[in-house]
């Protein structure tokens, strides 16, 4: 049975239920867009020469992988193998901490947001292989672009939060529906992951938007804030990627937005970013789960500050962050980075080797010169943020 009628959220925006799985998988295995997408990703050269043959091979393999899958749990078991392979193929290692200390029962995870799909995938990976249930994933409805991608996300327990709804009343109704669905999910024993603010932190600045906290309260406006957050088991989550596969794309967008005042995304860019974020090289990845919020907070702004404190305190730094800061500190007009570099130098935590510098030089060479300032800032900003908030633990791994 769907939760939509109670929450007020349209069924098309909700995760699929067990009863939807068989029909959805039968539709996906015949979806030409999906087969073309998978063929281009898994067998790019062969697909260019023999597209029909390659897509038939992909279809045959896909049928074998989903044979016998009849519910969401079965689908997630299949996805767990994909997740393990992505971790093995795209990461030097993945470390996760804090999962064992989580309280029993569902949690509302609020995380920093660097990648469209990898952030929640990494949390689900940590939970799944720790013997805990995976999360329902809050996703912006801007990602409703291709039917096969939407189907896959809904099979993977994603639900869509509506953005840019016209009219104040409709905006409120959409937010209220999302709030109710989150509450209903937790009441039903389902954990939820949501980003700390709308959209990815393309500039590397992780900041919690108090509007997210206000949205949590809409479904129970009479409750005292601290008691409500304790009931929802709000837990901050911090994830850090040594390398961002989408770093050049983000730097390009930020540069063009600054120069032109706006940026119009080409059709399909979000889907390409999603695929690149999952399949691209990430180096070392560290995910840390924080502590549940238990204080009697006076305002959503105070809650946001505590989430920031935990996320930034748990955020792992890497040599690339320090080297980017070092380069920026020598650029005219970058006083904030120069001040941060002075503090880092005084602390003496970072002594890069020649090999580390060579790897950094090779990485930055992959970014066009006109986008490099923004590229550097995205890697240096986590250090600046930690210092701005008075948070130490500057030593990289």
Descriptive overview:
The protein is globular and about 60 Å long. The longest helix has 20 residues, at about 170-185. The model is unreliable at about 1-5 (pLDDT under 50). The chain folds into three domains: about 5-20 and about 70-315, Glycerol-3-phosphate (1)-acyltransferase (3-Layer(aba) Sandwich), CATH 3.40.1130; about 30-70, no CATH class; about 320-390, no CATH class. It is built from 18 helices and seven strands. With about 400 residues, the protein is an alpha/beta fold. It has helices at about 5, 20-30, 30-40, 45-50, 50-65, 70-90, 120-130, 145-155, 170-185, 210-215, 225-230, 245-260, 270-280, 300-315, 320-330, 335-345, 355-365, 370-390; strands spanning about 90-95, 110, 135-140, 160, 190-195, 235-240, 285-290. Helix 8 (about 145-155) links the parallel strand 3 (about 135-140) and strand 4 (about 160).
């Amino acid at each position: 049975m769907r939760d939509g009628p109670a929450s007020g959220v349209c069924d098309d925006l909700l995760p699929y239920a067990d009863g939807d799985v068989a029909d959805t998988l039968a539709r996906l295995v015949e979806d030409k867009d999906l087969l073309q997408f998978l063929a281009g990703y898994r067998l790019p050269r062969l697909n260019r020469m023999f597209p029909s043959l390659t897509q038939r091979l992909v279809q045959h393999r896909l049928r074998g992988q989903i044979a016998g899958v009849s519910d969401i749990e079965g689908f997630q078991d299949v996805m767990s193998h994909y997740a393990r392979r992505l971790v093995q193929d795209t990461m030097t290692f993945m470390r996760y901490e804090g999962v064992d200390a989580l309280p029993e029962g569902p949690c509302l995870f609020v995380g920093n947001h660097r990648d469209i799909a990898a952030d929640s995938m990494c949390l689900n990976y940590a939970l799944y292989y720790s013997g805990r249930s995976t999360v329902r994933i809050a996703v912006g409805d801007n990602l409703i672009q291709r039917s096969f991608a939407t189907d896959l996300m809904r099979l993977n327990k994603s639900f869509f939060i509506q953005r840019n709804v016209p009219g104040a009343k409709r905006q409120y109704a959409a937010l209220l529906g999302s709030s109710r669905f989150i509450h209903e999910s937790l009441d039903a024993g389902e954990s939820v992951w949501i980003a700390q603010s709308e959209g990815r932190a393309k500039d590397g600045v992780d900041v919690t938007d108090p509007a997210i906290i206000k949205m949590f309260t809409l479904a129970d406006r009479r409750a005292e804030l601290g008691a409500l957050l304790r009931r929802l088991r709000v837990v901050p989550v911090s994830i850090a990627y040594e390398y961002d596969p989408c770093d050049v794309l983000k730097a390009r967008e930020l540069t063009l937005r600054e120069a032109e005042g706006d940026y119009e995304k080409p059709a399909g860019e979000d889907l390409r970013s999603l695929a690149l974020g999952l399949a691209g090289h990430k180096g070392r990845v560290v995910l840390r789960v924080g502590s549940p919020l238990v204080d009697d907070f006076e305002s959503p702004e105070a809650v946001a500050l505590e989430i920031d404190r935990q996320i930034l305190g748990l955020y792992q730094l890497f040599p690339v962050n320090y080297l980017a800061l070092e380069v920026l500190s020598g650029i005219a007009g970058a006083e904030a980075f120069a001040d941060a570099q002075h503090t880092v130098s005084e602390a003496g935590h970072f002594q890069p080797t020649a090999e580390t510098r060579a790897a950094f030089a090779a990485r930055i060479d992959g970014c066009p010169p006109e986008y490099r300032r923004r590229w550097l800032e995205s890697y240096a900003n986590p250090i600046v943020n930690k210092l701005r908030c008075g948070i130490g633990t500057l030593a990289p791994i």
